[in-house]
Specification:
three-stranded antiparallel sheet; elongated; five-stranded antiparallel sheet; Jelly Rolls
Length: 139
């Protein structure tokens, strides 16, 4: 059993910017030389999330609207009083979505559905540079 750790570095625009990282993660898998196993994709930080979605224009509009209903921007969050900032909704959304996901690897390829892409969702209020951890376990 082997373990390989790589990174994907991206710049985001903030405010529910959804970035397709499927090919970036596949590149790390290819570099790892691991043929069969699992890959965990994780974002350090409390205002970003890793998930899967069909990366198409309609869902790029639908998903932010759904998040706005679940944890709206314009309401009071006690977090704002603690740090005197405006991203309480970002933390709530990220906590609900989670910082990581795991996918299988078979024959050196990330296994995912035809219409399923691996994405990073920027939930903070402004642009960020993100270093996403890609850890692979297998043989």
């Amino acid at each position: 059993m082997s373990v390989y750790c790589g990174e994907v570095n991206i710049e985001t625009n903030g405010d529910v910017d959804i970035v397709d990282i499927t090919s970036d993660v596949q590149d790390v898998i290819s570099k790892s030389k691991i043929k069969d196993g699992i890959v965990c994709v994780f974002v350090p930080g409390s205002t970003g999330s890793i998930t899967s979605i069909e990366y198409e224009p309609g869902l790029m509009k639908d998903f932010p609207r759904a998040l706005e209903k679940i944890a709206p921007k314009g309401i009071h969050y006690d977090h704002h009083e603690t740090w005197h900032d405006d991203n309480g909704h970002s933390h709530v959304r990220a906590s609900l979505m989670g910082p990581s996901t795991t996918f299988p690897i078979k024959n050196g390829k990330l296994i995912h559905g035809t219409w399923q892409q691996l994405v990073f969702v920027e939930l903070d209020t402004g642009p960020r540079n993100r270093n996403i951890i890609v850890q692979i376990v297998g043989e």
